[in-house]
Amino acid sequence: MLEGELSDPRIAPSHVTEVVLAPGGKSARVFIAVHGSEQEEESTLEALTSARGYIRSQLRDRMGVRHVPELSFAIDRSEKMTGRMDELLNRMRKREKKATPSQP
């Protein structure tokens, strides 16, 4: 639904990483990973926030339930952080290989 049905140009390529439902089910926090810059993250967040009424109505229709929780959206940067950590670890390994004298 994020990219296919919402035609807002502010929405960058993204996907839902986690949904945390509050006790009682009256609200839910939806975490989104955005594939783009920080500016694209912010514009995507703004677009989703402005479309939350439409998103709730679509969820209500598709799920066939009477009540859909109030939605709030947050950016999930864990994938970017994981990628950055992998990059740093790879750099360290390369430096260690260069620093280790080669054996004949």
UniProtKB/TrEMBL annotation:
Signal peptide: none
SUPFAM superfamilies (UniProt xref): Ribosome-binding factor A, RbfA (SSF89919)
Record carries keyword Cytoplasm: yes
One term under GO cellular component: cytosol
Subcellular location: Cytoplasm
Record-linked InterPro entries: KH_dom-like_a/b, RbfA, RbfA_dom_sf, Ribosome-bd_factorA_CS
Gene Ontology biological-process entries: maturation of SSU-rRNA
One GO MF term attached to the UniProt entry: ribosomal small subunit binding
Function description: One of several proteins that assist in the late maturation steps of the functional core of the 30S ribosomal subunit. Associates with free 30S ribosomal subunits (but not with 30S subunits that are part of 70S ribosomes or polysomes). Required for efficient processing of 16S rRNA. May interact with the 5'-terminal helix region of 16S rRNA.
Protein family per UniProt: Belongs to the RbfA family.
NCBIfam families noted in UniProt: rbfA (TIGR00082)
Record's protein name: Ribosome-binding factor A
Classification lineage: Bacteria, Pseudomonadati, Acidobacteriota, Terriglobia, Terriglobales
Gene (name only): rbfA
